[in-house]
């Protein structure tokens, strides 16, 4: 049986670490009634469908287990490779210490409330994410936002296009920003990726800021609608995606992470507003590191390639080689589209 002293010590250890929010595996309505700050709720019964929301497996993770699943969740996560460092079980003892530490947020829940209405009922409450966005985006977004605010004051609503959005972590992270109101058009060829993007955006309360478009960027730079699969039609999934003519719009930020289509570069450049930003971070042949995937020059940049193509229309602010978590090199590139106004110097805010 865990003593009050050891429980308080564990909470202190987690709170004083830089490990991010706690993973709360209790049902959503129970989490919203009484939750630890900061925490993210993914109910245990739905964990398998939301593993893309978890942090990198190497990152220390704090977990709150339901009392009826004690030991089960942590074993599942550990067996799959996650670094579960702190485990708490819901109990009056935990809430007592949490109140003393002022890390508990409580709201009375009427037992007659419809559980399905709870996400809307609590949609305005602060949300946290376990995952992190593309590090290059995270390191440079403050500068991007400040530059856009200076250009558009007093407007602080901006739009972003995310090419090949994947599971939508960058999308939701952007839309959760408080200093700037981001609205994102997310495109991907895979309906499963767009489904995860929508699921994640809904879970953190930003779905109203997200448009999802199911299109495929072809190797020749053209854009096509993927064929509708029978299962998608049967399940009505095609109704989920937005019919947006994104090619004829311009954006404050065009984002392209781990996707490469050289024939689409010219279109990407045209879609950035004057004074707006282009951020690319994708795989590169750097002459130093060898890796298996993705294979071939079609999926890997050459050194200096981005600078050579975009420098005429853009001021190149950063162009460097970085290593992602698994050691593969990426070319991270940030540029601002030229206008008639003098450009400000970029300060790297790592």
Describe what you observe in this structure.
With 350 residues, the protein is an alpha/beta fold. It folds into 2 domains: 4-121, 3-Layer(aba) Sandwich (Oxidized Rhodanese, domain 1); 135-337, 3-Layer(aba) Sandwich (Rossmann fold), CATH 3.40.50.150. Helices cover 27% and strands 26% of the residues. The chain is built from 11 helices and 16 strands. It has helices at 4-15, 28-33, 72-79, 92-100, 118-121, 135-152, 169-175, 191-203, 230-235, 265-271, 305-310, and strands spanning 22-24, 34-36, 39-41, 60-65, 83-89, 104-106, 157-163, 181-188, 210-214, 216-217, 223-224, 251-257, 272-285, 301-302, 314-323, 329-337. The strands form 4 sheets. Strands 7, 8, 9, 12, 13, 14, 15 and 16 form an 8-stranded mixed sheet that branches. Helix 1 (4-15) crosses helix 4. The longest helix has 18 residues, at 135-152. It starts with a helix and ends in a 13-residue tail after the last strand. The model is unreliable at 233-238 and 341-350 (pLDDT under 50). This is S-adenosyl-L-methionine-dependent methyltransferase. It comes from Gigaspora rosea.
């Amino acid at each position: 049986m865990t003593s009050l002293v050891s429980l308080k010590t564990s909470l202190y250890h987690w709170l004083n670490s830089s490990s991010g929010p706690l993973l709360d595996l209790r049902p959503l309505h129970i989490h919203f009634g009484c939750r630890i700050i900061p925490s993210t709720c993914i109910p245990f019964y739905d964990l398998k469908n939301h593993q893309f929301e978890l942090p990198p497996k190497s990152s220390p993770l704090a977990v709150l287990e339901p009392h009826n699943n004690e030991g089960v969740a942590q074993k599942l996560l550990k067996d799959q490779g996650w670094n579960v460092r702190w485990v708490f079980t819901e109990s009056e003892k935990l809430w007592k210490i949490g109140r003393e530490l002022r890390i508990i947020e409580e709201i009375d829940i009427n037992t007659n409330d419809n559980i399905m209405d709870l996400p809307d009922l609590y949609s305005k409450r602060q949300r946290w994410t376990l995952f992190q966005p593309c590090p290059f985006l995270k390191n440079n977004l403050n500068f991007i936002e400040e530059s856009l605010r200076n250009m558009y004051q007093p407007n602080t609503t901006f739009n972003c296009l995310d090419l090949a959005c994947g599971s939508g972590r960058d999308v939701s992270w952007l839309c959760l920003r408080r200093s700037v109101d981001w609205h994102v058009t997310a495109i991907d060829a895979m309906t499963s990726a767009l489904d995860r993007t929508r699921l994640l955006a809904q879970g953190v309360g930003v779905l109203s800021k997200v448009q999802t478009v199911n299109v495929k960027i072809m190797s020749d730079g053209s854009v096509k609608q993927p064929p509708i699969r029978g299962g998608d039609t049967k399940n009505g999934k095609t109704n989920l995606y937005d019919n947006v003519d994104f090619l004829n719009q311009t954006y404050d930020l065009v984002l392209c992470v781990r996707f490469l289509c050289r024939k689409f570069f010219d279109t990407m450049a045209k879609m950035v507003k004057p004074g707006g930003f282009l951020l690319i971070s994708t795989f590169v042949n750097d002459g130093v590191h060898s890796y298996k995937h993705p294979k071939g020059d079609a999926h890997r940049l050459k050194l200096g390639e981005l600078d050579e193509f975009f420098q005429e229309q853009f001021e190149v602010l950063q162009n460097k080689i970085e290593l992602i978590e698994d050691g593969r090199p990426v070319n991270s590139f940030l540029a601002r589209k030229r206008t008639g106004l003098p450009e400000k110097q970029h300060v790297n805010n790592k």
